[in-house]
Amino acid sequence: MSDLGGRLLAFVPTRRAAIVLFVVALTVYWLQALGWPMAKGRDTWDYLVYYLQFLDGDPPLSQVQLFRTPLTPLVVGLPMAIGGAALLEVVFGLLFAVGVVAWSATALVFGRVPALASAVLLLVYPAWATLYHQASSDAVFATGLALWALVLART
Q1: Among candidates 8, 45, 6, which has minimal Cα distance to 120?
Q2: CA angle, residues 76, 151, 117, in degrees to nearest 5
Q3: Could you report the per-residue pLDDT of 99-146, keeping only the tens digit for each?
Q4: CA distances to 24, 45, 47, 72 from 42, in Å
Q5: Rounded to two decimals, what is the model's pTM?
Q6: C-alpha–C-alpha distance, residues 103 and 120, integer Å
Q7: Helix (H) or strand (E) holding 39
Q8: I need a surface site. Which of 76, 125, 142, 153 has the fewest CB within 10 A?
């Protein structure tokens, strides 16, 4: 058993492990999505309104643009405009997988065991999954924070 654990820990810092984790995270997301489909999240309508008037020179609801950054309206609105809720679910699944891999890679700075533990915990923690099954800024922010933490830890 310790030989298997040793081989697993030796596998953790490899690029292949990151790819496997990404695929596993996508699989977990899609298994969750079978019973937990994409839902309207906090301020979804604001993001969609922002997206619809994004290039308008005189937007009718300009106040929405004063209190929101343009990233989430693009991440939510563009997939909805191109492929509807199905494409939005694909985009949020990718964000979920990127977030899991980024946090695991960040934890790798502190060791192989923390990297493995963080990956496993994020894959089974329902509150983390909640962020990615709602069309809101939470998933975009969580993924951005994970990537920022990775850059900061590597720096």
Answers
A1: 8
A2: 85
A3: 999 999 999 999 888 999 999 999 999 889 989 999 988 999 999 999
A4: 28, 8, 10, 12
A5: 0.89
A6: 11
A7: strand 39-40
A8: 125
